[in-house]
Amino acid sequence: MTDPIGLEVREDGVGVLTLDAPPLNLITRAMTMRLLALCDQIAADPRVRSLVITGAGDRAFCAGADVGEFAQVRDDVVGKKLTRENRAMTAVATLPIPTIAAINGVCLGGGAELAIACDLRVMDADATVGFPEILLGVFPGSGGVFRLPRIIGIAGALDLLYSGRQVHADEALRLGLSSETAPAGSALKRALERAAVLADRPALALSLIKSGASASFTQTIDDATAASLADSRRVFTGPDIEEGLAAFFGKRAPHFTALRTAHVRAIENTQEDA
C-alpha cells in the first residue's frame, strides 16, 4: 500500500511533509494515523528545526475528508474518525518547531483544518480555502470551530463557517487566514525559503515563543507573566545567547546550532521539581 504521507528532512533542518494521495490528497483514516506517527517522529528528532506541509500534485493541498469513508464511520463518527483526527491536528499544532502550510490548489474541510493547525500559511495566488462542512449538514469537527476564530477573529470565522464559502488567496490574506500570497505554483518554494530562515534561528527560543503564544489564550496575565519569566531564564542561561551576543558585537550574522532538546530537558526538570 502506498504511503499516504511522505517526510523528507533536508540538510538545512527543514522537514517537508507531503500529503501524497493525488489528485485531491483526501484525508483518510490511514492518513490520519500516519500523520500522528510522523508528528511523534518529528517532535523527537532535533534535526528538524522547522516544517513545511504541502500536498502532492497541483490540484489540491487537501480537498478534505474522504466522503467515501463516511458509510464506515457514521455509526460512531467520534470514536472511529474524529477523535483520531483531533489528535492528529493537535499533534501538528503542538510541534515544538515553526510550521508552515504551503497551500496549492484547493484547501477544504479537513485540509483547511490541517492548514490552520500550522503556524503560518503561504498560498498560491490561484489557491482557495474554505470550510464547506455546513453544506453537508455538519460542521468542522477537527479543530476548525475553535482554531479559526483565534486566527481571524470571531466575526470572520463565523462568516466562513456559516456560509461554507471558499475564499481566494487575496481575500485569505486580507482576513489574516493566509500569511503570504505567492505567485501561482510557487507556494512551496516560498514556504521552503521561509522555513530555511526559521531553521537557522535559535531552536529553543522559537519553541518557547510558540508554546508561550499558544498558552496565552487560556492564561491569566499573572500566569502568562510567570511563564514568560521562567522561559526567559531558560534562554538567558542557554547556549544560544553566547552566539547571539558574539555575533552582535562581532558585527556578523549569528549561526545558531544548539538543539531544542534543551527545552525538553527544562520541561522534564520542572515536572520533576513539581
From TrEMBL:
PROSITE patterns for this protein: ENOYL_COA_HYDRATASE (PS00166)
Matching SUPFAM superfamilies: ClpP/crotonase (SSF52096)
Annotated InterPro entries: ClpP/crotonase-like_dom_sf, Enoyl-CoA_hyd/isom_CS, Enoyl-CoA_hydra/iso
Similarity comment: family membership: Belongs to the enoyl-CoA hydratase/isomerase family.
Protein known as: Enoyl-CoA hydratase
Origin species: Microbacterium kribbense
